[in-house]
Amino acid sequence: RAVDKVGAKSIASASYTFYCKKPLNKILIVNATSPYTASKLNFFQAGMQNAGITIFDTLNAFIKNNNNYEELSPDYFTQNKVLKFFDKIVWFSDNDSVSLALAQRSLGEFLSNNGRIFMAINFSQFFYEQSALMDFTPVKELIPDTQGVFRMNTAAAMQPLISGYPILKSTSIISSARPFLKAIDNGSSKFYDVYGGELIVSTPNGPVTWTGTSIVSAKRVDLITNQTNFIFTSMPLDSMKGKNKLNSLFRKTLGV
Questions:
Q1: pLDDT value at position 244?
Q2: Distance from CA of residue 130 to its chain's centroid?
Q3: Distance from C-alpha of 211 to C-alpha of 228, rounded to nearest angstrom
Q4: Whole-prediction pTM value?
Q5: 4-36: per-residue pLDDT in tens?
Q6: Could you tell me if 28 and 88 are in contact, meaning their C-beta atoms sit under 8 angstroms apart?
Q7: DSSP string, 60-103
C-alpha cells in the first residue's frame, strides 16, 4: 500500500501469484526462432550435450497452441522473474526484431544478477543499423551495406580475435551476414571484439570481397567482477559447424 506524508494509505493491492517449474539446472536454452523451428533447437541441444552440458532447461519462446504462446510468461515483469532463476543462458534466433524486443524487456533482472548470456541472432539485410533494440547488447551499430548484401560463402571462416576461441567454418552460404561495431566502453563495462568474419558483398556486378570492418561477434566484461557477462554474434551458428568446433565454443562462452 502507498502511504503519503500525512499517513493516509491507498487501497491494498497485490500482484497475481505465478508458479515456475523448478529448473533442472542453472543453464537455460532460449529458442527464440519465430516462427518456432524445431531443427534449430535440436542443433543447439546437441551442441550443449557434445560440450558435456547434459542437464539444462529449454524455453521455446514463440511456440504457439491455438494462437497462444505456450511457454512465455504473460508479461515482461513475470518473464524477468523467471529468467532470474538461471545463471547462464544460450539465446538464439533468426528473427531479429521480435527476439531482441523480447530479450531487451525480459533480461534486465538476469543481467543485474550477474547472469551470463551467449546470444546468437542473425540480422536480416533490412534490420536498421542503429536500432535501439541493440542498446542492451555489446553491439553499437551494424555496418551499413551500401554496396550490396553482406554474405558468407561456404567454407569461409569466423576467425577468433581472442585467445581460446576456436576457428569456425561455414557449411553453407549465409545469405545475410551483418558485421557491426562493438559498443563503447563505459564506467561499468568494457567491450571486446571476439570474431571477425570472412565476408563478401553481393553487388549488382557480382560478389566482391569485403575489406572493411568485419566484426561478427563481441563481448561485454563487467569492470567490477572482471567477468564476461554477455557474448553476442550475428552469425547463424547452425551454419558454422564446418570444423566441428562448436562444442569448444559452447564451453568457452558458458565458462564450463
A1: 81
A2: 17
A3: 29
A4: 0.90
A5: 777 777 776 555 666 677 778 899 999 999 888
A6: yes
A7: ETT-EETTEESSS-SSHHHHHHHHTT-SEEEEEES-HHHHHHHH
